[in-house]
């Protein structure tokens, strides 16, 4: 490949770009504008710092996300049963930490409803100090899971489950806004409509400033100027007055304490990691780039450990804010995540009074738009549903229903994967075909005394269960040949099925010859033949 071939730079690593600041293709792309950059280049912090337009997008998006995090962090604090400051500081510390530790650039991690629900019981039963210890232990467990390669299991998530996950997420985000639209003055609905109009229409004028930020500023300014009596961020709870400090959980360091916090820590680790990895995969699709899921697992664990030692409730990836950051605002680098965390601290501590004036209607409008943009509308079009296999649609619906019914994305994904496994097993069980041919064998004196069964397809526990019933044991002649040239033995269940078939023929005084096995299948059958209960 020529050294000037553009693909050479496209496939270069971030480190290579940093080590070659005068690379001619870097200079060329810098001169071309956003359209001349690859998705991988757009994630580079170094390149973004050299591009005022990109840098503005990252900073402004971080500001919008920081604003949007405040009411949700306060709400999640109430769910967990702790002071608002605990949730706000968790959001800020998680966002700042993950911007350095995480494997998925531009993804936002903070306090979340999923983790708040999991840890709420330990706060109610043992107090907030046990919460901090639980968060630290959850982080340690996530680091361990990352080292064990748990993140690699993400490749087994079917696309139909991912589609259901995205749609369920959009529904949950919309439903989470409903409390702020109930029992409120009618002016709230007017403000929400105005906010949505600005978000949808402002990009027609210019995309230089995120439409969501314009919506928040305009709606807030209108409320302040007219002194409308509508719910505001300040109504959610009191904002903190000082920065967080390092603390050591005031709990007994005993086996009894470990027994108390371990179940909650494990649940938080699993739920948080699953939600984070699913969000990372979603952002991979949105940005057309890859990310290290193992590093993300380690990063989530590290961020929770840091969060626990700062006396907060920890968390995981926030799907709604991540979609605001990447899909609505176009951010792509770690700078946006870092900015969101820093802005949240500044807004909460130094500008708390001003932030408290932001009407909830402005933030509701942003979240409603993100819900609309996140939902995969193509997946429910009649033309798509007609073209899709029924099993794929069913898996998507199960994932959506399980998630919405429980309010837990991890439960919905688990049910979707389980349904996909069952439906897949049912489908592949019928992939194997058996063709029966009666005729002379390799001996001229057989004269039709041989029957050959040709098996076509992969044989494993699901597809081999019906193999036993595909033979005519009584009517077959004395010599039976089973040809597996077009098949493969994958597991012990198939060997057991062949043993059962051979044994039944022998009871009728007939001989069976299995031919055509490839080397791996022959070795497996030789090793296991006769050592398994028939059909076991």
Automatic annotation (TrEMBL):
Q: Where in the cell is it found?
A: Membrane
Alphabetical UniProt keywords: Membrane, Transmembrane, Transmembrane helix
Which spans of this chain does the record mark as coiled coil?
Answer: none
- Membrane topology reported for the UniProt record: Multi-pass membrane protein
Regions that span the bilayer: 59-79, 85-101, 130-149, 156-174, 186-206, 213-233, 253-274, 342-375, 395-425
Task: List the InterPro entries hit by this protein, alphabetically.
Answer: Membrane-Transporter-like, SLC26A/SulP_dom, STAS_dom, STAS_dom_sf
Q: Give the signal sequence positions.
A: none
- Looking at the record, the residues that make up the STAS domain are 449-536
Q: What is this protein called?
A: SulP family inorganic anion transporter
Q: Which organism is it from?
A: Citricoccus parietis
